[in-house]
Amino acid sequence: MTRFEELLGSDFAGQPTDDVDDVIYGGYDHAEHRERVPGLVALLGDASAADRERFLACLALVAWGEPVGYETVRELSLAPRTAPWYDLLIDRKFSVDSSYGHLSAAAADSREPAEEKGSSALRVETFRSLIRMADREYFEEKLGDYLDEDVVRACLPDIRDVIRRGLGALTAGIPCRFDLATQLVDLANSVVVVDEDLAVELVLRVLRAAPSGRAMAHAVAAAHRAAGPAGEALAGRLYRSGNAHVRALLAGRG
Predict the structure, then answer these.
(1) CA angle 41-44-48, nearest 5°?
(2) Which three-class secondary structure string do you get for 148-201?
(3) Which distant-in-sequence residues (6+ apart) come within 8 Å of 174 by Cβ?
(4) Positive or negative torsion for Cα 144, 147, 152, 154
(5) Under 8 Å CB-to-CB from 229, ≥6 apart: which residues?
(6) Cα(108)–Cα(143) distance, rounded to whole angstroms?
(7) How far is CA 155 from the centre of its chain?
């Protein structure tokens, strides 16, 4: 049995499995996952190991709320495309790397382990690092919808800044390898839980810069979540400007 098979290719009963996700997310129910952490840290830092194995080691460490996993993501965010596994996971829609979306999802799922291990502050900082590169890297719809209220509150200035930068790129017509406008709308949607008026303002800024049908369809989420006048105004704008699909999505509002 290889080192990887021992760490992530075996369930917590010691049985071989091809389902790595089952091992990673099964770790929440098994305190024994802590025994695998040192081996995963070593695998993550082993430049001779396969890129896939190093990525999955990082994913597990993040999902389990381990500081090493969080710190690795934060360091990589400074130069995202230098990750050894960059372009290993390719999104089918845009044919671009989607590894940061998977890491974002793992960070979202790590809330309880982080609380247990005292790494909640690092978890928030990891999301801050991910948010800051959302105008450059694709998250496969696994960022905005994955931010809990505490993270949004702490990272609100970062959300505003990355939307501002993304808007600058959209307005200037700078080519992007993925649907930047929709990704920015998803981030703006997350703000509803802390400030409905600001969330709607940010959504509308993006739609003015790039009023695509897909971005409008995603903006419906903010219209559903915002209970006050701002939500009503957004719903009205989307109904008037959107296509039949957007209007159908709005039909369930209220």
Answers:
(1) 130
(2) CHHHHHHHHHHHHHHHHHHHHHHHHCCCCCCCHHHHHHHHHHHHHHCCHHHHHH
(3) none
(4) negative
(5) none
(6) 9
(7) 13
Q: How far apart are alpha carbons 202 and 167 in whole angstroms?
A: 10
Written as six digits, the tokens of 161 are 């800044």
> Which residues lie closer than 8 Å to 17 by C-beta, 6 or more apart?
9, 10, 11, 23
Q: How many other C-beta atoms can be found within 10 angstroms of the C-beta atom of residue 243?
A: 11
CA–CA dist 165, 170 (Å, integer): 9
Average pLDDT score over the chain = 96
In tens, the pLDDT along 51-82 reads: 999 999 999 999 999 999 999 999 999 999 99
Looking at residue 253, what is its pLDDT? 61
On the CB side of 36, CA atoms within 13 Å amount to 28
- Using the structure block, give the residue that is written with the tokens 């021992």: 6
pLDDT of residue 1: 83
Q: What share of the chain is helix, strand, coil (3-state, %, to 5)?
A: 70, 0, 30
Give the separation between CA 18 and CA 163, rounded to whole angstroms: 39
